[in-house]
Amino acid sequence: MNNFNNSNFNFSTKTVMLNSGYEMPLNGIGTYSLTGDTAYNSVSSALKSGVRLIDTAYMYHNEEEIGRAIRDSKIPREEIFVITKIYPTQFSSPKEAIDMALEKLDIGYIDMMLLHHPGENDVNAYKEMEKYVKEGKIHSIGLSNWYVEELEEFLPQVDITPALVQNEIHPYYQENDVIPYIQDKGIVVQGWYPFGGRGHTSELLNDKTIVEIANNHNVSAAQVILRWNLQKGVVVIPGSSNPEHIKENTQIYHFELTNEDMERINNLDRNEKHDWY
User: Fold this and answer.
1) Are 13 and 213 in contact (CB under 8 A)?
2) I need a surface site. Which of 96, 97, 173, 230 has the fewest CB within 10 A?
3) Is 60 known to be catalytic?
4) What pLDDT tens digit does each residue of the chain (277 aa) get?
5) pTM here?
6) Which residues lie closer than 8 Å to 189 by C-beta, 6 or more apart?
7) 55 near 110, Cβ under 8 Å?
8) Which residues contact 37 (CB under 8 A, 6 or more apart)?
9) What single DSSP character describes residue 184?
10) Which one, of 172, 194, 191, lies nearest residue 183 by Cα?
């Protein structure tokens, strides 16, 4: 059994303390593939449902709509945690990339900025983000789609330890060797594609084992998958534009999976990656 660490997860406040000294919610909404009014409406709906963690990126082409939804919500800025990412095509001019994200979001500061995945000049881009941390324009920084090999090469070259590593994690691609490696460095792990991603969601949500566990707890398959992540110490950012699903995805604190449930889901691992990076 892998030794996962969710000991710094506070299930009563539904937050985790990052190594940067900031608190981050344990569950949020991912906005990949949501653009225009759909992005605006999804984030508005999520905020109304109590979601306070929003994940976006330069490559999602929706930072402006997300910023507007946050401003229009009238929720105090400090209660909302926004993650965005700069893409490898921007690594050669990171200052412009960071300034553009700040301008598009237009919410004063960025809670967390990630490098979207490894690429040429990634260390240089990260060092530029470090400067913005010192200026208070970015609170925390991290990485997306970095695995053990990449981390071993990258970490010795930077000054600020990443607060977060965000990777593809779902029951068919569990990263059971990667998660403890990251957690042992005091870095929080966050999983994207918790339901397997586009084209794979229905297979995962109809998986016999997961459905059976869901029925035992009187919850949905989606809620079981999200709870499984939390109990492994993985923050979840499921994407959805359906207000009912968005709300359902927040209702993951009233039940607990047993060790046997966890073990059964762990046995579903196929090392089946659904995205290229």
Assistant:
1) no
2) 96
3) yes
4) 467 888 899 999 999 999 999 999 999 999 999 999 999 999 999 999 999 999 999 999 999 999 999 999 999 999 999 999 999 999 999 999 999 999 999 999 999 999 999 999 999 999 999 999 999 999 999 999 999 999 999 999 999 999 999 999 999 999 999 999 999 999 999 999 999 988 899 999 999 999 999 999 999 999 999 999 999 999 999 999 999 999 999 999 999 999 999 999 999 999 988 876 6
5) 0.96
6) 164, 165, 166, 167, 169, 179, 182, 183, 233, 234, 235
7) no
8) 65
9) T
10) 191
Q: CB count, 10 Å around CB of 17? A: 15
* Radius of gyration of the CA atoms of the chain, in A: 18
The amino acid at residue 175 is E
Report the C-alpha gap between 109 and 277 in whole angstroms. Answer: 28
Q: Which helix (H) or strand (E) holds 111?
A: strand 110-115
**Looking at residue 161, what DSSP letter applies?**
P
60, 126, 173, 193: which is the annotated catalytic residue? Answer: 60
The two tokens of residue 142 are 């991290």
Angle between helices 259-266 and 221-231 (to 10 degrees): 100
For residues 91 and 120, is the Cβ–Cβ distance under 8 A? yes
Tokens of 29: 């909404």
Alpha helices in the chain (DSSP H): 36-48, 63-73, 94-105, 122-135, 148-154, 178-183, 201-205, 208-217, 221-231, 243-248, 259-266
| Residue 52, helix vs strand vs coil | coil
Two tokens at 175? 């990263």
The token pair at 130 is 């470090």
Residue among 59, 70, 58, 64 nearest 29 (CA): 70
Tokens standing for 120? Answer: 């040429």
Cα separation of 90 and 50, whole Å?
33
